[in-house]
Amino acid sequence: MAPSDRKYTESHEWVMVEGDVATIGITDHAQDSLGDITFIELPQSGKNVTKGAECGVVESVKAASDIFSPVSGVVQSTNDTLTTSPELINSDPFGKGWFFKVTGIDSAQIDVLMDSVQYETFLETL
Predict the structure, then answer these.
(1) How far apart are CA 8 and CA 12, in angstroms?
(2) What span, in angstroms and rounded, lies between the C-alpha atoms of 69 and 82?
(3) With pLDDT > 90 as the criterion, what percentage of the chain qualifies?
(4) Under 8 Å between Cβ of 53 and 116
(5) What is the pLDDT of residue 14?
(6) Gap between the Cα atoms of 57 and 66, Å rounded
(7) pLDDT digits (tens, 9 = 90+) for 49-61
(8) Which domains does the chain have, with CATH numbers?
(9) HSE on the CB side for 26, CA within 13 Å?
(10) Are the beta carbons of 14 and 30 closer than 8 angstroms?
(11) Percentage of residues of the chain with pLDDT beyond 70
């Protein structure tokens, strides 16, 4: 079940807002579809990301998949632990497997994303 404290995209990213900082990662569904994750390329701190635009890559034993930012803003920090331990994305996608944090977000971009119930319903259509 997708945690209810965040919002979701149709491309299976999640975003959790705390104050003026949005933390971004991929869902359990996404990591399960990818299989064992072996490499991740994240955007650099200070880089501008745009809602819906590619901002990184996650690679697994099965495939490579682009990461799309669910919001526009400036990358405040990245989860550097993932460079040496990308398997955290598989084991804890909603916790220690987070990707990056963004500041300068527009709450209107968050409001249009799916909540956990809508996301779970969306998964049933796949």
Answers:
(1) 6
(2) 17
(3) 99
(4) no
(5) 98
(6) 4
(7) 999 999 999 999 9
(8) 7-109 (2.40.50.100)
(9) 29
(10) no
(11) 100
Amino acid residing at 123: L
State if pTM tops 0.90.
Answer: yes
User: Which is it for strands 21-26 and 7-8: parallel, antiparallel or unpaired?
Assistant: unpaired
pLDDT of residue 1: 87
**Residue 106 token pair:** 């527009």
Which tokens sit at 97? 């497997």
Burial class (CB in 10 A: 0-12, 13-18, 19+), 44: exposed
Burial 75-106 (b: 16+ CB within 10 A, else e): bbebbeebeeebebbbeebbeebbbbbbeebe
- DSSP notation for 1-51: ---TTSEE-TTSEEEEEETTEEEEEE-HHHHHHH-SEEEEE-PPTT-EE-T
CA 49 to chain centre: 13
Q: For residue 21, what are its two tokens?
A: 């900082």
